[in-house]
Amino acid sequence: MSKWFMSGLIAVACLFGVYLLATALPDKEEVADNGPAFVVPELAVDAETSEQIYQALCISCHGDQLQGGAGPELAHIGSAMTKEQLYKTIKEGRRGMPAFEKRLTEDELLTITTWLASHE
């Protein structure tokens, strides 16, 4: 008797779930973040520091002349991506690129971002 009761209860729960999926669930909506968007501040390009960071962390994938290799070429990355996109990519990583959030300070992130953005 309890087998039939449990089977019936499971069947009713499944049917109710299908009903909810088909009719009652609202459409997903993107939640708008009304907070201020991050903007990379305008900084003077510090080529010496940026090149040191590049040689230490980026050269193995992006090449010694920004020509690319395992990673994409960066010689004209400033015209392909905004500073904010570059900053986010360097900080959080993307596709095969590791995140450098824990390996670079905020100042170093901003320095390398500004330098790369100047390569148009």
Structure description:
This protein has 120 residues and is mainly α. The chain has helices at 2-24, 47-57, 59-62, 77-80, 83-92, 106-117. It has a domain at 47-117: Orthogonal Bundle (Cytochrome Bc1 Complex, Chain D, domain 2). Helix 2 (47-57) crosses helix 6 and helix 5 packs across helix 6 (106-117). The protein starts with a helix and ends with a helix.
Task: Present the secondary structure layout.
Blueprint: H1 2-24, H2 47-57, H3 59-62, H4 77-80, H5 83-92, H6 106-117
Helix pairs in contact: 2-6, 5-6
State the end-to-end distance: 76 Å
| Assigned CATH superfamily of the domain at 47-117 | Cytochrome c-like domain
CATH class membership of the domain at 47-117: Mainly Alpha
* Number of DSSP helical runs: 6
Protein name: Cytochrome c550
Domain Cytochrome c: 45-120
Keywords: Electron transport, Heme, Iron, Metal-binding, Transport
Pfam families: Cytochrome_CBB3
Question: Care to give the gist of this entry?
Answer:
The protein has 120 residues and is mainly alpha-helical.
Task: Please supply descriptive tags for the structure shown above.
single chain, 120 residues, mainly alpha, Cytochrome Bc1 Complex, Chain D, domain 2, 6 helices, 0% strand
